[in-house]
């Protein structure tokens, strides 16, 4: 499902020159229905790996294959279809502020042209499941951090993606909301979605044992 | 969810991102100029055509006592001049026909012979032509009113062409205004565009949302500007009617003027699409 082969990544400088390496010789593979923690301190390269997985950037060297698509070699026009198969949960939510919670969740379905009746049914169902049906009409700014995070998750999984990636999803949440979020990920994983969660907290993998890939300074230092 | 001009959802929030009223006002001003330019092009073209018909005989020469020898001498003298492209005598039957509305039957009147000239160069001095023919045929009189009319026709043609150039300029400026407005819109909604991009929206879909919204605003602005300009043009023609009987409101290209709003919308759509697609190309 996801394969990194000797991946190197350097973000270009404003002058266009290759900058300092963010990833060096990173290799691993994730299977269908897997649950993986990406563990490491800030700057270790976790977010870069997630950005490569969602085709937000291309590798400087090596091979990144996601859902059968070679991110480095794929035509630009082929990437939107790939992105629609991947759910993404950002640390800073990235909800559209001028849309209601309901419309934010409906967005991925509308992008693929789903019929409005089907959109209504799916969005209502997922908001009910996440306990947010009563707040569907509210703007993101009117919701708590945990509620916004759940809306972000609803938007990420509404299309039933094969792969869900989350970047520090609990950093803005209190302990109760964080546990609830991880439980939600575990439940989705049980339903067949492959999950990749980046975190700097060793507490989360300890509470929810799964495969852990540990990074430091752009390299994998432990990947059982 | 709010809808855009095409009835589609407005996830980018373009209603707030594009400076709606300013854009409508600017496009209205452009449409006003475009309407004036188009009306000016058509009106000047009509004037040029009608004046040119009147100037076909740019110069006429009258020969008193038009014996065949005197007519021949005048024609020889005129045809020898490089500034004269063509010299043709007007036959007596046509002369009688031209004078009939004023003088009735002129069969008994001693009419001068008349020679019509076409000049090779409108800048040629008709006085010199008159002097040369008077030397060859004493008493010959040269009338050059047609030269003035022909020059007017040339000016009208130039105005007509300049109006088209103004129309083109207005389209370019209008497109530039749209591009600036769209860039400002992208700057205001960059985060939303990035979210849509990462959710898997295709470039054409994102650009289309901007383009349709922009086209809708351009259509509104152009209708306003065109309606205002059309009213002003109509009023001007009513005022100028006695001085310019050649041009009536019916002579204006009303179908072309009515196409200005759709043309403005098309230009705005194209400019917005191109601008946003180019910007989106920077993204992976």
Task: Note down, in words, how this protein is organized.
- The complex is a heterodimer of chains A (224) and B (284).
- Chain A is an alpha/beta fold.
- Chain A contains seven helices and ten strands.
- Chain A has helices at 46-53, 79-83, 101-111, 116-129, 145-157, 175-190, 203-207; strands at 2-12, 18-30, 35-39, 61-66, 69-70, 86-89, 163-167, 194-199, 211-216, 219-222.
- In chain A, the strands form two sheets. In chain A, strands 6-7-8-3-9-10 form a six-stranded mixed beta sheet, with helices on both faces. In chain A, strands 2-1-4-5 form a four-stranded antiparallel beta sheet, with helices on one face.
- In chain A, strand 1 (2-12) and strand 2 (18-30) form a beta hairpin.
- In chain A, helix 3 (101-111) crosses helix 4 (116-129) and helix 3 runs parallel beside helix 5 (145-157).
- The longest helix of chain A has 16 residues, at 175-190.
- Chain B is α+β, with helices and mostly antiparallel strands and 284 residues long.
- Helices cover 67% and strands 8% of the residues of chain B.
- Chain B is built from ten helices and four strands; from the N terminus they run ααβαβαβαβααααα.
- In chain B, strands 2-3-1-4 form a four-stranded antiparallel beta sheet.
- In chain B, helix 3 crosses helix 5.
- The longest helix of chain B is centred in the middle third of the chain and has 44 residues, at 145-188.
- Chain B is elongated.
- Chain B starts with 13 loop residues before the first helix and ends with a helix.
- The mean pLDDT of chain B is 83.
């Amino acid at each position: 499902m996801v394969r990194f082969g000797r991946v190197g990544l350097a973000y270009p400088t404003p002058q266009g020159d290759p900058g300092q390496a963010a990833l060096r010789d990173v290799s691993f593979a994730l299977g269908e229905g897997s649950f993986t923690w990406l563990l490491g301190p800030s700057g270790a390269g976790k977010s870069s790996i997630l950005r490569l997985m969602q085709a937000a950037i291309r590798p400087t060297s090596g091979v990144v294959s996601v859902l059968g698509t070679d991110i480095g070699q794929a035509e630009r026009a082929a990437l939107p279809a790939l992105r629609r198969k991947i759910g993404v949960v950002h640390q800073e939510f990235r909800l559209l502020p001028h849309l209601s919670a309901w419309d934010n969740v409906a967005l991925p379905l509308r992008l693929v042209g789903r019929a409005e009746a089907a959109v209504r049914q799916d969005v209502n169902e997922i908001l009910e499941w996440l306990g947010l049906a009563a707040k569907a009409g509210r703007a993101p700014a009117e919701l708590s951090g945990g509620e916004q995070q759940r809306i972000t998750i609803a938007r990420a999984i509404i299309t039933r993606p094969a792969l869900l990636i989350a970047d520090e999803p609990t950093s803005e949440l209190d302990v109760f909301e964080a546990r609830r979020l991880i439980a939600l990920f575990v439940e989705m994983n049980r339903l067949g979605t492959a999950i990749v969660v980046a975190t700097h907290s060793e507490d989360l993998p300890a509470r929810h044992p799964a495969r852990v890939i540990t990074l430091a300074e752009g390299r994998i230092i432990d990947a059982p | 969810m709010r809808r855009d001009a095409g009835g589609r959802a407005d996830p980018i929030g373009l209603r707030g991102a594009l400076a709606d009223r300013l854009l409508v006002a600017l496009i209205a001003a452009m449409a006003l100029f475009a309407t004036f330019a188009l009306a000016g092009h058509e009106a000047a073209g009509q004037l040029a055509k009608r004046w040119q018909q009147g100037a076909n005989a740019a110069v006429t020469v009258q020969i008193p006592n038009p014996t065949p020898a005197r007519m021949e001498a005048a024609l020889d003298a005129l045809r020898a001049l490089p500034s004269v492209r063509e010299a043709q005598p007007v036959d007596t039957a046509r002369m009688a026909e031209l004078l009939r509305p004023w003088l009735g039957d002129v069969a008994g009147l001693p009419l001068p012979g008349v020679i019509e000239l076409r000049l090779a160069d409108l800048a040629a001095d008709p006085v010199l032509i008159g002097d040369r023919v008077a030397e060859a045929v004493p008493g010959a009189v040269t009338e050059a009113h047609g030269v003035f009319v022909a020059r007017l026709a040339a000016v009208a043609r130039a105005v007509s062409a300049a109006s088209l150039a103004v129309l083109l300029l207005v389209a370019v400026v209008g497109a530039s205004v749209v591009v600036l407005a769209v860039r400002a819109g992208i700057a205001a909604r960059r985060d939303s565009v990035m979210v849509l991009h990462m959710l898997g929206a295709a470039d054409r879909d994102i650009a289309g949302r901007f383009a349709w919204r922009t086209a809708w605003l351009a259509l509104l602005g152009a209708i306003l500007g065109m309606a205002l300009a059309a009213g002003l043009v109509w009023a001007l023609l009513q005022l100028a009617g006695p001085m310019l009987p050649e041009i009536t409101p019916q002579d204006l290209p009303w179908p072309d003027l009515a196409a200005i709003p759709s043309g403005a919308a098309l230009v705005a759509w194209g400019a917005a699409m191109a601008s946003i697609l180019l910007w989106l190309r920077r993204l992976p």
